[in-house]
Amino acid sequence: MRNGDDLEGFDGEASSTSMISGASSPYQPTTEPVSQRRGLGGLRCDLDYLRGTFGRIKLAEVVLALIAFICIETIMECSPCEGLYFFEFVSCSALVVTGVLLLMFSLNLHTRIPQINWNLTDLVNTGLSTFFFFIASVVLAALNHKTGAEIAAVV
Question: Which residues fall in a compositionally biased region of kind Acidic residues (predicted)?
């Protein structure tokens, strides 16, 4: 049994002297220091994403949507313009939305909003863009079957 001398200075709490005793103590700080973030407001370009497979695919999507938008804007005349306008809308929308997703992933902004499943969002965007590009191409080709310039732009 312990006597009164063993419990001297014991108030029911851990002694603070053993916690500060230095390197030989088993009680070391458990948090790591926070490194200073570089860039503007903590933004930094994630080159690993851009060099990876998904980054290259997303960059190719943006470039192809830009090329499609430029090609459809070079058409000077159209007889029924509804197909042309629909393709223009689809290409511009795909360019903007995919460009925003590329920025979100390449600047690691998607980590600041963890409530959204970004992989699913990216998959849905890619699927819908592909589907609507196909539909817009078919509509453009079907409505402008008389002239060859518009069909060449679709191909």
Answer: 1-11
What pLDDT does residue 80 have? 78
- Cα separation of 9 and 15, whole Å? 9
- Residue ranges of domains in the chain: 63-151
Question: What count of Cα atoms within 13 Å lies in the side-chain half-sphere of residue 46?
Answer: 18
d(CA 54, CA 139): 30
| pTM of the shown model | 0.65
Q: Cβ(144)–Cβ(75) under 8 Å?
A: no
Does pLDDT of 109 surpass 80?
yes
What are the residues whose beta carbons fall under 8 Å from the beta carbon of 86, sequence distance 6 or more? 136, 139, 140
Q: Per-residue DSSP letters for 36-91?
A: PPPSGGG----HHHHHSHHHHHHHHHHHHHHHHHHHHHT----SS-HHHHHHHHHH
Question: What mean pLDDT value characterizes the chain?
Answer: 79
Decide if 54 contacts 102 (C-beta within 8 A).
no
Residue 128, judged by CB atoms within 10 A of its CB (0-12, 13-18, 19+), counts as middle
